[in-house]
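Format notes (please read before filing issues)

Several people have asked whether sequences and structure tokens are stored in separate files. They are not. Every record keeps both together, in the order shown below: the sequence lines, then the token lines. Line labels are part of the format and must not be stripped during preprocessing.
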Amino acid sequence: MKRFISWRVPTKWPVFRLDDRLLLIISGMIVGILSGLAAFALNRSLVFCLDFLHSYRAYWWAFILPAGGAALSSLFLSRVVNEGAGHGIPEVIYAVSRYGGLIRLRSSFSRLVSSCLTIGSGGSAGPEAPVVMSGAAIGSNIARFFSFNDRQRVTLVGCGAAGAISSIFNAPIAGLVFVLEVILGEWSTVNIVPIAVASVAGTEVSRLLAGNQIAFSHHTFHISFHDILACAGLAVVTAFMSVILTRLLRHMHHASDKTKLPIWAKAAVGGCAVGLLGFFVPDVMGEGYHSIRNMIEGVYEQGMTIAVVACFAKVLATSLTLGWGGSGGIFAPSLVVGSFSGLAYHRFLVYFFPSVPWVGEGCYALLGMAGFIGGILQAPLTGIFLIVEITGGYEVILPLIIISSLSATICYYFESASFYMKDLVERGQLLRPGTDARVLSDLSISELLEKDCISVPPSMSLREFVGLITRSRRNYFPVEDPETKEFLGLVKFDDIRPYLFNSMMYDAVFVEQIMDTHVAVARYGEDLSDVLRIMDSRGLFSMPVLANKRFVGMISKATLLDQYRKELMVQTYQG
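Then the structure lines:
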């Protein structure tokens, strides 16, 4: 994909040409407002769907409601908007990683509709990832409309994602941190200000339309030293549950891929299973925020055994919903599983250590959410700030830091990449800005070809070859078959050095006797990172490039590194 390199917007917007930062701040504010509106629209749509279907859930056939919603969601994505099922956020990361943030316009609404059908009918998923996808698509297409360059477009994609997260949670700092830590993967000064502005704009839209309310209220908690020590054990629990959800989701994806059913039928199978599970454990249905409120406020009436069962049931329900084709994200389910983990852990401590004055179970539910988010996303700062902002629980900041960091660290040893990035890493598609892999991915062999090499036939005598050298600026001479033009080998200037001062050999030695037939070659269209790896491993400075067994040019480290430096300047240009 050819990069569009343009440092400024068109001259019809002269006021913005004076200051790139002002351009991004104003654009980011607009994107944040639109993302906030998208988040509000999805939230209201979910409330409507849940209220509309509430009266039907008492019937015996209610288990088919999630199946119908998931099937309609799948049909809408595959047949109407022609998009594949997915969580949304990996697609945004991939667009930022490989295509400079280019996202199709229809993605600004497609995941909103599909996730509303899935979650509104009772599927176990969250609305956050679809809203992030929508906000990122809004930012991408606004950048495309104004002909922004890649760096500016990526920033606006981040603005859209931040505005969406901050709006849906009423948490501007969490939105900023999530984008920098997960979506963009870099803490660049040129990104922080516009993304922060977008995050605040999205939050203000939420507060204007829905009121300034924190998502989950709680009582004031007084943390003791033994509670802080207990955080280490809770970190192990949340990390364990994070790994289980990650692997079970991947297992469900693989099982779905192997099942020979239409896409909509697979989604219906998963939804039907969730509906049946919901008969026995109602807390697994939907995004599950009502359960979190009960746990944080300390009014969850079920015992420790039921809390443990609900924790694993929510993991299974989420895997069935998303793994079999439903639409939605893992944010809300992660918060639910984390809070159940914290609640069950607290009750375990109280049961076995009744004499210790533990803090209220609502605090452990908070800590469990932070540990689970930090673990499954491997983004500890996101877990910390998200829980602090959506609960207003600043007095638990110290244990939040401990458990989120420990959980993320433990998960890293079992899963080398987060849930969102695992598949991208395995396919070699996670390329962060400014890294070697990203810079090299934006270059191609065709841009680096040196085509001024003189080809020679294998039957040429050394006398003729010496005469040819005087007219060439190169030290490498490809040998071609005179009839088929296929590449046969390479003659290096160093190979003929022993014969240069012995004129008696000029008519006795031919090119085919001195050419190297085992030379390492690069294929036209091959990945540059692989080419550079071969050159480094063999100590080469140049390599011939072949297309259909024919020589098309040379590629050298000098030219590659020169273009690498220029491309790096493009990607890290700070305006």
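For reference, the curators noted about this record: The chain has three domains: 14-216, 225-426, 438-572. The chain is about 65% helix and 5% strand.
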